[in-house]
Specification:
The protein is built from 10 helices and 8 strands. It is of the alpha/beta class. The chain binds 1,3-dihydroxyacetonephosphate (13P). Its main location: cytoplasm.
């Protein structure tokens, strides 16, 4: 973690969840303050179809609701797409942009991700901008240069500590049960902080940098102890309140 930065424990439900899942959200909302000892903020990014109900289910709790993607435009002829203002209208405070699954499945470039981040800000949402290297990039020693390129391309220069969260998600660690070594996580997060400083100056000192990729109750404690790891972006282990709250519990006393 980083002294002076309040951690964010965020869930990404991806394409999971129907009305049957609202009970898990209620349990997350009800248990979060106790689990985290009031030492962290919470966020669950649900499918757009659940957003309105999720926001209502978690209203008044320390757990905010977010979307998982938004269109770069405010409105118009974009069948099936959802604007940042629509997410905001359903109760979102955050939106994930540039998740590796969207970069891969929908061919989103850094420029598209940057445009989406700006659209999020325009609507009054915090942009959770995701970056991370593939396995091939990791093994060929390109991780840091890939992160530099992604930051330069996906994080607009108007980013602030208030409007932006950066999530480092090594693509090869997502959903695989694998995580980088702790020194590798530390190196990546320090590099991200340094690159953000080059881009936005002292404002970078307050930006939350989350780790994502197979974060689970049994590894959250060690990951969250690392310098510049200011929380997590959790996929599979955010679907059950028990697991998500166990991860929130790991911020205590860090
Ligand atoms: O992609 C992720 C969060 O955005 C991480 O997913 P897992 O926690 O399931 O590996």
């Amino acid at each position: 973690m980083t002294p002076g930065i309040r951690p964010l424990i965020a869930g990404n439900w991806k394409m999971n969840g129907t009305s049957d899942s609202l009970g898990e959200l209620q349990a997350i909302a009800a248990g979060f303050a106790d689990a985290s000892g009031n030492e962290a903020d919470g966020l669950i990014c649900v499918p757009a179809t659940l957003l309105d109900r999720a926001a209502k289910a978690m209203a008044g709790s320390p757990v905010a609701s977010g979307g998982q993607d938004c269109h770069a435009k405010e409105s118009g002829a974009h069948t099936g797409d959802i604007s940042a203002a629509m997410l905001k209208d359903c109760g979102a405070s955050h939106v994930i942009v540039g998740h590796s699954e969207r970069r891969a499945d929908h061919g989103e470039s850094d420029a598209v991700v940057a445009a989406k981040a700006k659209a999020a800000w325009q609507a009054g949402l915090v942009a959770v901008i995701c970056i991370g290297e593939t396995r091939e990039e990791r093994v060929s020693g390109k991780t840091l240069s890939v992160l530099s390129t992604q930051i330069a391309g996906s994080v607009p220069a108007e980013a602030t500590a208030a409007n932006t969260v950066v999530a480092y998600e090594p693509v090869w660690a997502i959903g695989t049960g694998l995580i980088p070594t702790l020194p590798d996580v530390e190196e990546a997060h320090a590099h991200i902080r340094a690159e953000l400083k080059r881009l936005i100056g002292a404002e970078a000192d307050g930006v939350r940098i989350l780790y994502g990729g197979s974060m689970k109750p049994d590894n959250a404690g060690e990951l969250l102890s690392i310098n510049n790891v200011d929380g997590g972006l959790i996929g599979g282990a955010s679907l059950k309140a028990k697991d998500f709250l166990a991860i929130a519990n790991a911020v205590k006393g860090k």
